[in-house]
Amino acid sequence: MKFVDEFRDPAAGRAAIERITALAAAQDRGFKFMEVCGGHTHTIYRHGIEQLLPAPVELVHGPGCPVCVIPMGRVDDALHLAAQPGVTLTSFGDMMRVPGSTSTLLDAKAGGADVRMVYSPLDALAVAEREPDRHVVFFAVGFETTSPSTAVTLQRARALGIDNFSVFSNHVRIVPPLRAILTAPELDLDGFIGPGHVSTVIGNRPYQFIPDEFSIPLVTAGFEPLDVIQAIEMLLRQYDEGRCRVENQYTRVVRDEGNLRAQQLLEEVFTTRDTFEWRGLGWIPHSGMAIAEPYADLDSERRFTLPGARVEDPPACECGPVLRGVLKPWECGVFGTACTPETPIGTCMVSSEGACAAYYEFGRLRVADEPDPLPLVSADRARR
Question: Most buried pick, 4, 113, 122, 260, via CB within 10 A?
Answer without folding.
Answer: 113
